[in-house]
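Recap quiz, item 2
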Amino acid sequence: MTSALQRFRVLDLSESIAGQYCCRLMADYGATVLLVEPPEGSILRRKPPFSRNGTSLTFRHLNHGKAIRRLRPGPAVPQIGALAADADLAVVPVGFDAAALRNANPDCIVLDVSTFGAEGPYRNWQGGEMIVQALSGMMNNNGEAGRPPLFGTGNRAAYAAGLATYISGLALLLARDRGNDGRRASVDVAETAAAMSFPYVLQYAYNGTDRRRGDQEIPAGQVLCRGTWVCIWVYPFRFAAMCRTLGLAHLVGDPRFAEDADRTRNWTALFDIIQKALADRDAEEVVRQLQEAQVIAACAYRPSELARNPHLDARGFWEITQMEGDEIQVLGPPFRMSATPRRFAAAEPMPERKVAG
Amino acid sequence: MSQPLEGLRVIELTTAWAGPMAGRILAWLGADVTHVESPTRTNSWRQNKGVPSPVNYPDLDPGARKYDRTFLFNSQNLNKRSLVVDLKTAEGLAAMRRLICASDVLLCNFRGGMLKRLGLDYDTISRENPRLIVVEMPAYGLAGPHSGYAALGPTMEMAAGMSAMIAYAGGKPTVTGPSYMDPIGGFNAAAAVLTALASRQATGLGQHVEVPQVEAAMQLIGPELLAAAEQGGEPAPNGNRIPYACPHDCYPAAGEDEWIAIAVETDAQWQRLVQQMQRDDLARDSSLNQLEGRLAAADRIDAAIAEWTRGQDKHDLAERLQAQEIPAAPVCTPRDLAASPYLAARGFFSIVAHPLAGTHPHPGLPFHIGPAPADRPAPCFGADNAHLLGQVLGMEAAEIGRLEAARVIADSPDPEA
């Protein structure tokens, strides 16, 4: 059985979450990927969080499955040119001089990845996740009315830009094999974040109205069940089913909750009652019973709860592979392909590999 | 140049945002994408049910065909065709089956098991069309104890471990806006389709691909999950504060509900910030020179910054701070996005003329792979029935007319469908 991208060779010069995640996905699905680090090591090796032995878990997550080579001190161009000779695709940071790549291999597809773009009014701007989320429109919609907007968590826009880079790269590789001459693409994290924002900007274009956080009336509430938060989605046509399932059948006839509008008005009172009833119930069991009654519910898992999770375990989600001489735990694949599943290259040493000092 | 996916036919059985966004990406890359709905069950983003809310329509007017005029559906279905066929009828199902057999990709974002029930699953169809790629996007995957659970964007964000890391101090887990999982699922499903196409280009064979949206999204917080797996510990989210940078928050600016985000990632940036604030006392306070000291004094620092930003224009101040190499940005509203010089320079918006909704700038996708043709508007309900049944399946006009009369196909939905 072959892998989906087995015939492609990829150079990862990106030095960014987006670029390295794109190339990690390519490695997941079978491409031969060489991560090229500057002499002092990739900047992502210094990105938190860190494992107990001091390794960056960000670097580990982004780069397992790749061969890794450090450039020697001195001019990088000749070294990179040599590596590019048989590459199908290279991911480079903003401002990278692609001439060396093109001279060595005019057929190589080059993907530029940056936060704010190589051109345009913000080309000199800097900032991470919160800054791009502020610009994207999403942050304005996130959080409670009357309180500061919330940016979210982690570096989700940068990872999504990695997906956008992956899509761009595969589109160009597919097109190249069909005789297309396109060899360049660029992805901005900030633009990716804007594309992920709920499309309220089109609402504004349609009629000039503006939505803010808290304007959405989401028919959901959260209750704490023995220390785990459970979210319950109460569609009007499932209210009675929810009440019966939770042993609160008497609420169905309660005039405070009779119609949708009554419930909206008395939402806090409703969830106070639900909270009292469920405080000492098992969260997983509550969700299971609600789902059985076709009421949408979910646990708001903490990360540690996902590390030991019966559903994920039954699916074989957590996997073990090798990286830089260590046995490491990694997340399951983002998608599961029936004919060409993600496979880790057997633990044999990769030819290009150089263990970091 | 021709578009990368030109000549490929994609059938999309999806609703709301995640699935349609995946199809929108494939359409943008040149595929011929058909969004399929039923006269008895419309895409929920057409908002055919209930009393229309004026804010969803051009000029606040739902018009005669409200389901063709909402910004929600019209934002995610650019460059596609619309087929409206009732799969509960034998003839509708047969037509759908023939169409899938004549296609390259079937993209499905309904609950696992639906395709099998209809006899449209990969195992069945691939016997006839071995080149077919079927991508399904079940929230929790097709197997495992939670595989039958229904989900929405916000509940998937909770199940993925993200919400627990987003909260005001001491508060409940929060979900990101109306939904952040949908665009993530859209990107992942499009990536899955392209990967399967790359495989098919080498082998000539299609395959089935499962995109378990919750697991796929967990990749985006991979390092945080790995840290929890190794070290335990619980996140204690505190608004916009993070352990690696301080100050790191948004602060009130001039105007109602206007904010500026400021992120100080290095000690040098801190010195430049307090210089901008003309706060010599903070500059001289050696306890704040390094991250650890600033984290301990975050309340005091944030209060000082808020006092300084209040009353200042968020755009001007962000420009000024960025000019000093201090990460900052206005917290943008939809109005700000529409006027963003950055997005304009990037060509993010395209002007799209919709026959029933009018001409407006539409938000785009972050792909720049060469010149792209102008965007076509989202299709009106059932607009391409005749093309698909006639041109693709070779049905006679009289036969198509008969199916229309029997409402096997339709160009208007049943009320409240």
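Chain A touches chain B through 143 residues (CB under 8 Å).
DSSP finds 14 helices and twelve strands in chain A.
End of item.
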